[in-house]
Design brief:
alpha/beta; 8-stranded parallel sheet; 16 helices; 26 strands
Length: about 650
């Protein structure tokens, strides 16, 4: 029996009230902590031990974070400094990952007098492979460019995602979403691999939560999130793993010049100079659009006015121009590119609108990536038909201003334009195939011509078949040259089955047309060949033959190049290495023509038997070759 003090009347009830009050206070405090944690955004979301650059800057976003003091209690992880943002809701942490740091979840605490601590575990991961193992694309590859929304719908369940600004799919509308996704690409890797492509470049797959035309991917609204209408981060990783298991590469399309107008930070910009013309944006004043005068990057006479407008003007009104002069944003963008490279085990990056950001930043960005991954590759988009401008951006160029870009690969718009003009125009001293011959001679200007990317079309240009007037022989010649020239070749999805936009020239929505067979019920299926027209099927098989040969040809990958001035509508180019010689002949003559071979004697082929790649016939290199009609002819020594 209990013999202590007698309980006062109502004592138990009072005690229960005290316990309840304490519990409510505890639960309120806990919910406050959990609420703050749930509102805490940390970017990058994780990092790795063993990186060449041991420093890391975290961007934290959440209510009143600028008033908190961070603490890190983890071995070999040093908090060197922290910086409140211009907005009270940002805090930037400068960390150093010391030698010997081990992977794990490390505690970070944010403290503020009178408020509960905010705690979370930041994960440092173990790298999947050493930096030197990241092999970038090169001239041994053939890149298949895909607009994912228009390629194949592998997961119809993600076509509509509640809460996103643009809802639904409408394949009858060229500028609406059509439903293609990451799973659609994964499901058809057998086709891509079987055709002979060795790398794929999908246009951006990150979240574009824009109200209209979000399908293209270039108005990113979250730099660390896969657009849920394309799939998940795990889907993206699966795509990369599946490609690597086949010896193929994944190239990520990235954008550091701008973001989408609906990016989450546009509601709460970290600093007052995060984007260009920021105050005008906040005041609701008209947007200032760039003048697109890309030559100001090289022009010794360019005015300050033109330089500033080119660098700071918005690309379009729906894409705010990012200010890489802000050191925190610059670091954010560099780390973002490295995070995706490491997370997806990339085989390359394609950087959009390369000449538009500050060029000193672009050199810093490329250098940081290439120093972390010395065998990697990046291609930058400089849409110029002037080879002097294209060459300026390739690392190793002898630029008079001393600029070095650290960019291995640029895009060969000049040679693309020359190729189409050469095939479309009648022969003459400065017309026809002579245009191509002269354009290739410009390679003397480039630091490394074989590292430049050549293509016939892309997601922003008329389809190659349209550019060539829907001529099958010209199409064959164009593809053969792209694949045999001393370049890294890139083809746009559907080129192999003669997709065109001839009814709407210049229309981007029509250019990015659906791939036949990517949707259930399509009348034609390019993956299987069913329902394709005779010409489309033949072109697909022709390309497959060329790609199969190219994949195994060191002469095409790394060989020396010799070409001969065109005569009588015929152009000959040869590639040689390690005893193999490959000869490409482009013939524009409509009738059967005999090509005399005596002026090609320096190739050392006299009396040798060569194999014709396109029809698998043996040909003796003697006095002449009979060219039965217009098209491409590819021969190789046995």
């Amino acid at each position: 029996m209990y013999r202590g003090r007698a309980a006062r009347p109502g004592g138990i009830a009072a005690l229960l009230l005290q316990i309840t009050a304490v519990a409510i206070l505890y639960m309120g405090t806990l919910s406050t902590i959990q609420g703050q944690q749930s509102q805490l955004r940390v970017e990058p979301p994780n990092w790795w031990v063993g990186m060449r650059d041991s420093t890391l800057q975290l961007m934290l976003h959440g209510p009143s974070l600028a008033k908190y003091t961070p603490e890190v209690d983890a071995p070999r992880l040093v908090l060197e400094a922290w910086h409140p943002g211009g907005s009270p809701n940002y805090l930037f942490l400068d960390l150093r990952i010391g030698p010997g740091a081990v992977a794990g979840k490390l505690p970070i605490i944010l403290r503020r007098d009178g408020f509960p601590d905010i705690k979370w575990a930041y994960e440092l991961k173990t790298r999947e492979q050493p930096a030197a193992a990241f092999r970038g694309f090169d001239a041994s590859d053939v890149i298949y460019l895909i607009t994912p929304d228009r390629f194949a719908n592998g997961s119809p369940g993600n076509d509509i995602v509640p809460g996103m600004r643009e809802q639904g799919v409408d394949r009858a509308d060229d500028y609406a979403r059509h439903g293609g996704d990451i799973r659609g690409m994964i499901d058809h890797l057998d086709y891509v691999d079987g055709m002979g492509f060795t790398a794929i470049w999908p246009t951006p797959l990150l979240t574009n939560d824009m109200a209209r035309s979000s399908y293209h991917g270039y108005a990113i609204t979250d730099f660390y999130e896969v657009d849920p209408r394309f799939g998940t981060l795990e889907d993206y990783k699966t795509l990369s793993r599946e490609l690597r298991s086949r010896g193929m590469k994944l190239i990520m399309d990235q954008v550091v010049n701008h973001c989408g107008l609906s990016h989450w930070w546009m509601e709460d910009l970290p600093f007052d100079d995060w984007i260009h013309y920021q105050q005008a944006f906040l005041d609701g004043r008209p947007f200032t659009v760039t003048n697109h005068r890309r030559t100001v990057n090289q022009d010794p006479y360019a005015s300050v006015e033109d330089r500033v407008l080119m660098d700071q003007g918005w690309f379009v009104p729906s894409m705010p121009d990012l200010n890489q002069d802000n050191s925190f944003l610059a670091r954010y963008l560099i780390q973002n590119s490295i995070w995706w490279t490491e997370t997806l085990q990339l085989g390359g990056i394609r950087q959009d609108t390369y000449p538009y950001p500050d060029k000193a930043f672009m050199a810093r960005w490329a250098r940081a990536i290439m120093e972390e991954y010395p065998n990697f590759n990046i291609v930058g988009e400089e849409w110029s038909y002037n080879p002097l401008l294209v060459g300026y951006w390739q690392h190793g160029a002898h630029n008079r201003d001393g600029y070095q870009s650290y960019l291995r690969t640029t895009m060969d718009f000049p040679l693309q334009q020359a190729l189409v003009e050469a095939l479309r125009t009648v022969e003459g001293w400065e017309r026809g195939l002579n245009v191509l011959y002269t354009a290739l001679a410009n390679d003397f200007h480039y630091a490394r011509p074989a590292d430049i990317l050549l293509f016939g079309d892309n997601h922003d240009m008329d389809r190659l078949f349209t550019q060539l007037g829907e001529s099958v022989p010209l199409m064959e010649m164009a593809l053969a040259f792209i694949l045999m020239a001393p370049r890294i070749p890139q083809l746009y999805y559907g080129t192999e089955v003669l997709l065109q936009n001839s009814d709407k020239p210049g229309d981007h929505g029509r250019i990015r047309t659906d791939f036949p067979g990517g949707w259930e019920g399509d009348p034609g299926n390019a993956f299987t060949g069913e329902g394709l027209g005779k010409e489309a099927r033949r072109m697909q098989q022709t390309l497959k033959r060329i790609l199969a040969f190219r994949r195994q040809s060191p002469a095409v990958h790394r060989g020396t190049t010799v070409h001969f001035a065109p005569e009588d509508g015929i152009y000959l180019l040869a590639r040689s290495l390690e005893g193999q010689t490959v000869v490409l002949v482009l013939n524009k003559n409509a009738k059967p023509t005999r090509l005399a071979l005596d002026r090609f004697r320096e190739l050392g082929l006299e009396g040798k038997t060569l194999r014709s790649i396109l029809d698998d016939q043996n040909v003796r290199w003697s006095e002449s070759l009979l060219l039965e009609g217009p098209g491409a002819f590819i021969f190789t020594t046995m």
